[in-house]
């Protein structure tokens, strides 16, 4: 199989799986699950073969032409695409296998696995796209997939509301992204990633880069559009792991790295500060939440902020390195949380758990590896990638370095809080007392992801495959290296030590009991954005809509529009009356039409 054929297979296999499930397997959930998992295995195998075979290529075909304007579809498979495709393939396979156990018995299982397949198709399309128009098409398909899967349990009003919220908020960022693509085409005559990147592009100073960044703000849940991601936890936990932790939300980071050549200094400064402030804000929010999945959701927002800050500081390599390691340990955290939820009969309040270390040992040890990785324990995956970003920020912006170091303290604090309350002490509910380890389809992905969280940081040293990406990571030397290393160890010890000594395993939130004013302040900060958006919709947008509706009713434009609508309705009623369903009527109309056509051709009419 040629590399081009393999890349097309990686793209089209999930689409074929989704189509087959939709058309033929809607009432055969086991068949749908088997097909989707086999497809995910083939995608992962082909993705890894492509990445490590050294094949790097570009291929493009014209899809649509309107005068001088043309839209193409194509594949750009370089080191960056190889790295991202490997991450999508491996994490996608783990989530598919985990879903076999987690979604067993779910009445909508066939629909669920069909949704996973269409998501894999959409995500692979973003990775392989060789131009911004094609990327935007798959970008929107990923948004549709997210909406579809968040709303899997559509009988729940909270799930329906969360899916709509995610869809609408992402449209805000996507509107800016689309404007950026249009301006890029207007200025440069092309949006091909290869063509624009080969010549000095026109970027209109900060405008085009910042408009493109709007897409990443929405998709990667950065300030001020981060509000949708915690609510998206209403979807099944494997969806949270695949879409809202490891791959879809990372698409914004990947897109930024793809358009790195369009970035200018002023835009990078804005991007770096948005990322740094998002990282700090989300870490503060995670401290006060009780829901295990929402704590991890805020953690995801915070870690995405790290990646955005790294990109804004000028390092594609550091951003992608942390994206890769984060995919491993954050997917493990979410799937570990799913194992806890499944084993504890769908209990998600961390203060109603406890004592799971003895009852769920495999989940405990794999979750511990993930916590160690995200907090930056030396020689684990997260230590290497977070250390690279801290070194980068120390070299280029002392203020951002301070913000990210403080965020690292908070990360260790809220993750050790979660770990201690859930796994240590005694069970604090009936569900926790009867917790149990799940089957091999649930535990096997945990073991694989734990192994990747242990060794994933060493990918940077791999001499082939991704060298074109990881070689772009700047190295701290001398005193700077010592300062960064000391800071990394110090923030880990301070954050973890504070959490372990402060939190008790007695069922109460120690922060709320010991420092109620601080807890209240952090809670207000967590909900402030939702409150502000609710106020805007109710007091500004709704009133503006009422004014426009009044103008439409009493104004000349309203009269014209309603008149046209009425005339159209009358015409439609008359046309419908002609469709009687009787063959004899249609024959008469056909003969009448022939007579009119003959009369017109003969000059009678």
Task: Give a structural overview.
- By secondary structure, the protein is mainly alpha-helical.
- It is about 75% helix and about 5% strand.
- It is built from 26 helices and two strands.
- Strands 1-2 form a two-stranded antiparallel ribbon.
- β1 (about 55-65) and β2 (about 70-75) form a beta hairpin.
- It is globular and about 100 Å long.
- The protein starts with a helix and ends with a helix.
- The model has no long low-confidence stretch (mean pLDDT about 90).
Largest sheet: 2 strands, antiparallel
Residue windows where pLDDT falls under 50 for at least 5 positions = none
- Ends distance: 64 Å
- The helix content is over 70%
Can you describe this structure in just a few lines?
The protein is mainly alpha-helical. It has 26 helices and 2 strands.
Layout of helices and strands, plus pairs?
Elements: H1 3-24, H2 29-52, E1 57-66, E2 69-77, H3 79-102, H4 109-128, H5 132-150, H6 157-188, H7 193-198, H8 207-219, H9 228-231, H10 237-246, H11 251-258, H12 265-286, H13 292-312, H14 316-343, H15 356-359, H16 361-375, H17 381-396, H18 398-423, H19 430-433, H20 440-455, H21 467-470, H22 478-502, H23 510-514, H24 516-554, H25 556-578, H26 583-601
Antiparallel strand pairs: 1-2
Keywords:
605 residues; mainly alpha
């Amino acid at each position: 199989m040629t590399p081009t054929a393999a890349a097309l297979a990686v793209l089209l296999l999930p689409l074929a799986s989704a189509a087959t499930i939709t058309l033929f397997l809607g009432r055969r959930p086991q068949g749908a699950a088997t097909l989707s998992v086999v497809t995910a295995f083939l995608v992962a195998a082909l993705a890894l073969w492509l990445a490590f075979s050294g094949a790097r290529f570009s291929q493009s075909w014209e899809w649509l032409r309107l005068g001088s304007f043309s839209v193409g579809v194509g594949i750009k498979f370089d080191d960056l695409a190889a790295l991202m495709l490997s991450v999508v393939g491996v994490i996608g396979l783990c989530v598919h296998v985990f879903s076999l156990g987690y979604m067993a018995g779910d009445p909508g299982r066939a629909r669920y696995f069909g949704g996973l397949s269409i998501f894999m198709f959409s995500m692979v399309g973003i990775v392989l796209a060789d131009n911004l128009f094609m990327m935007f098409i798959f970008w929107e398909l990923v948004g549709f997939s997210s909406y579809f899967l968040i709303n899997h349990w559509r009988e729940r009003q909270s799930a329906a509301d969360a899916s709509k919220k995610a869809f609408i908020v992402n449209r805000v960022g996507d509107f800016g992204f689309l404007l950026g693509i249009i301006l890029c085409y207007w200025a440069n005559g092309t949006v091909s990633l290869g063509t624009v990147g080969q010549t000095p592009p026109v970027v209109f100073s900060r405008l085009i880069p910042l408009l493109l960044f709007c897409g990443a703000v929405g998709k990667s849940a950065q300030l001020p559009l981060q509000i949708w991601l915690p609510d998206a936890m209403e979807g099944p936990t494997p969806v949270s792991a695949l879409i809202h932790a490891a791959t879809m939300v990372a698409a914004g980071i990947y897109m930024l790295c793809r358009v790195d050549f369009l970035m200018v200094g002023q835009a990078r400064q804005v991007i770096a500060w948005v990322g740094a402030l998002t990282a700090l804000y989300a870490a503060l929010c995670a401290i006060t939440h009780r829901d295990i999945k929402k704590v991890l959701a805020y953690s995801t927002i915070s870690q995405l902020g790290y990646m955005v800050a790294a990109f804004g500081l000028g390092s594609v390599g550091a951003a992608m390195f942390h994206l890769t390691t984060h995919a491993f340990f954050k997917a493990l955290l979410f799937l570990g949380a799913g194992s806890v939820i499944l084993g504890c009969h769908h209990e998600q309040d961390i203060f109603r758990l406890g004592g799971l270390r003895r009852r769920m040992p495999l989940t405990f040890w794999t979750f511990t590896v993930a916590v160690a990785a995200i907090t930056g324990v030396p020689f684990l995956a997260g230590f290497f990638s977070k250390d690279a970003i801290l070194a980068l920020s120390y070299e280029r912006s002392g203020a951002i370095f301070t913000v990210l170091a403080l965020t690292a303290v908070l990360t260790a604090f809220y993750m050790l809080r979660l770990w201690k309350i859930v796994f240590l002490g005694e069970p604090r509910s009936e569900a926790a007392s009867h917790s149990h380890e799940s089957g091999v389809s649930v535990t096997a992905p945990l073991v694989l992801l734990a192994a990747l969280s242990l060794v994933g940081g060493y990918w940077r040293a791999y001499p082939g495959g991704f060298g074109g990406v990881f070689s772009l990571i700047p190295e701290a030397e001398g005193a700077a290296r010592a300062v960064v290393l000391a800071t990394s160890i110090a923030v880990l010890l301070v954050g973890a030590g504070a959490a372990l000594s402060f939190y008790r395993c007695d069922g109460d939130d120690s922060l709320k009991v010991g420092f109620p004013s601080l807890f209240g302040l952090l809670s207000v900060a967590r909900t402030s954005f939702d409150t502000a958006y609710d106020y805007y919709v109710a007091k500004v947008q709704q009133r503006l809509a009422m004014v426009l509706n009044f103008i439409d009713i009493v104004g000349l434009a309203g009269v014209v529009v309603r008149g046209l609508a009425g005339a159209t309705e009358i015409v439609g009623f008359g046309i419908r009356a002609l469709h009687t369903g009787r063959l004899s009527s249609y024959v008469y109309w056909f003969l009448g039409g022939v007579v009119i056509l003959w009369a017109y051709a003969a000059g009678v009419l």
